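wait is this the right file?? whatever heres the structure
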């Protein structure tokens, strides 16, 4: 019980009063919406679109063979992890990143990673709203959480990666909760 109380006390200190609880304040939601608009632009960047198109067309044997268990066993120095964090789409995300962003990753049509700022906990998000809703052309917004891969209190949003107006992949962006109270 002490751990739970300690966590709740720490959460109360870390989370702004405007976002502590079930939802976001109107002001915090405006800031999330502003990051979502940035993410829409990032998802339309040629480096991101081209990387998703290329992986959808020809994923290669390493991508095809990857599964969650194998992904979890890879460290940050594995060739596939290095490749997905150093390709043109990942470089673009790194350059476009703002101080509000805790993480960003791009997935192909099957939910498999195409590019990211840092290795994600999950290899594929196929079957999860953060991927499936953007693949249906919708925006997605999660709940406030402590993200395992980013190690931060955040809220995730996801937008579709489009080609000729049709979803071909998804872009998920984690937003730091503390940044929602800053201008």
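ok assuming it is, sequence goes like this
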């Amino acid at each position: 019980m002490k751990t739970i109380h300690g966590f709740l006390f720490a959460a109360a200190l870390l989370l702004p009063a405007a976002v502590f609880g079930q939802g976001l304040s109107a002001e915090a939601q405006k800031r999330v919406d502003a990051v979502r608009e940035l993410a829409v632009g990032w998802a339309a960047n040629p480096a991101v679109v081209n990387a998703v198109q290329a992986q959808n067309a020809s994923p290669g044997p390493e991508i095809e063979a990857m599964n969650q268990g194998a992904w979890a066993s890879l460290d940050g120095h594995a060739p596939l992890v290095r490749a997905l964090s150093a390709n043109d789409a990942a470089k673009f995300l790194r350059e476009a990143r703002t101080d509000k962003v805790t993480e960003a990753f791009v997935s192909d049509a099957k939910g498999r990673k195409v590019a990211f700022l840092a290795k994600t906990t999950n290899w594929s998000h196929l079957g999860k709203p953060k991927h499936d809703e953007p693949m249906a052309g919708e925006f997605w917004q999660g709940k406030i959480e402590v993200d395992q891969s980013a190690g931060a209190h955040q809220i995730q949003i996801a937008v579709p990666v489009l080609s000729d107006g049709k979803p071909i992949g998804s872009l998920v962006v984690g937003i730091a909760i503390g940044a929602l109270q800053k201008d």
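Residues 26-43 form the longest helix (18 residues). so i think its the right one actually
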